[in-house]
Amino acid sequence: MSLQPTANLTVTQPAGSGDVFVSILGTDPTTGTFSYLDFTTGKLVAYSSYKSLTTSQLLSSLKMPVGIPAMKSARIYFAVGTDFDTTTFPAQSGPSSSKNQTVMFDKVEFDTSSAGNFNINSTNVDFYALSYTMSLQNQSGDNVSVGLSSTRTEILTAMSKIPVANAGKNPGNTEIYQQLFVTDSKKNVVRYIAPKAAALTDWGSYSQEFTHYLDDYIRNKVFVPNRQFSFYDKFYPNPKNTYYGQISSDGTTMSLYTDSARKNLYLTLNRPMNGFGKPDFKNDPQYFHNTSGTENNQVDWGFLLLGNVAGTGLAADWGSDPAAMAILVSICRGVAHLDDGCTEWVKTSGFYQGDAGKSTENQPIEYYSKILHANAPGGAAYTLSYDDVYGQNSSVFFNSGQAITIALTSIEKVVLS
């Protein structure tokens, strides 16, 4: 007997687009076991290893809609042309998005384990590979569509044409974006890695440029000595918790207050910078992710700022506090230097603009997010781990039994010269 579906999923692909393999994996909330959905029986089966046409099925062979049982922290994987195997899909960790993984694939995240909190999102937090849209009704009964409206060719071409600023200089060298393409043996682009998800081996000689990419912006525009500003935390717009910031006279710390008179101290944050060359990747490669206890006990923003989910040491507040997280994502969006954050930090038209279009020198744009948000309906996309701050992400909350259609709109091969 199959489980009662929490959602009914229909997936489509372009006519004549070849083989697409589908796999749905997540935690069975009744047993706590990581499992896959057996498309034949509709039951969850404990996962041991990936086996094509067992763990997965060809999309063309599936009878739609597919009933989705209750699943926690679940993902729908789409592999195009070639399926995963036990080597390319290791255990619960799932497939790597790094350059050693050449299967062309993408994923959708969802959770139907808690009644009243069912949700699904198109995600590009780790990478961009395929263009797809998701259509469904939200909890209010509104018809919504999220995803990407442009083709693979259009988006990958835009990534390849990111303008070069600060070439050969550090930090803020936008040449790093050309290191993020992943190709297979036939030069087909299978993926474009999100900056925060690239491994040290993916960056190669560009690892330090990435780590210090935002240094000048942070030092010269955000942590300006004696600067005062205000902003909302990540729970905006409901409720609108306002915080008032003050930069120290030496520009090394940021104090946050809950009152405009700046008397009630909420939190003090250190300026998140190391001198160029630190972390020392050659001798201390473990500090590629976070620095704690060494290197002045500061933060490696190449990883944390662009989306690590948890900091350590002095980085801890940045990855967990709702006010600090709003600052973090506003730095990524290039608006954290604006003093009226209650107006300017939430205004999407001002995101990813650099120096008001004049130049990206000393204020480099996070182009990966800029391009994907620009190609998403309504600008809603999940490109940074903190894109839910001020509601820029693509999550949709829905009611039980909802019909969900995922249209794989663009899965064509792309070879860039």
How would you describe this structure to a colleague?
The protein is of the alpha+beta class and 417 residues long. The chain has 7 helices and 20 strands. The strands form 4 sheets. Strands 2, 3, 4, 5, 7, 8, 9 and 19 form an 8-stranded antiparallel beta sheet that branches. Residues 290-297 have low confidence and may be disordered.
- Percent helix: 10-25%
Low-pLDDT parts are 290-297
Largest sheet: 8 strands, antiparallel
- Estimate the strand proportion: 15-25%
Q: Give the mean pLDDT.
A: 88
Q: Please state the CA-atom Rg, rounded to the nearest Å.
A: 22 Å
Look at the helices and sheets and give the structural class: alpha+beta
* Total of DSSP H or I helical runs spanning 4+ residues: 7
List how many beta strands DSSP finds: 20
Q: Spell out the helices and strands N to C.
A: EEEEEEEEEEEEHEEHHHEEEEHHHEE
Shape: globular
| First-residue to last-residue Cα separation | 52 Å
Mind sketching the topology for me?
Elements: E1 7-12, E2 20-28, E3 33-37, E4 44-46, E5 57-58, E6 66-68, E7 72-80, E8 104-111, E9 119-122, E10 127-128, E11 131-137, E12 143-147, H1 152-160, E13 181-183, E14 189-193, H2 200-203, H3 207-211, H4 215-222, E15 228-232, E16 242-247, E17 253-257, E18 265-270, H5 322-332, H6 341-344, H7 367-374, E19 396-397, E20 402-410
Parallel strand pairs: 1-20
Antiparallel strand pairs: 1-6, 2-3, 2-5, 2-7, 3-4, 7-8, 8-9, 9-19, 10-14, 11-12, 11-20, 13-14, 15-16, 16-17, 17-18
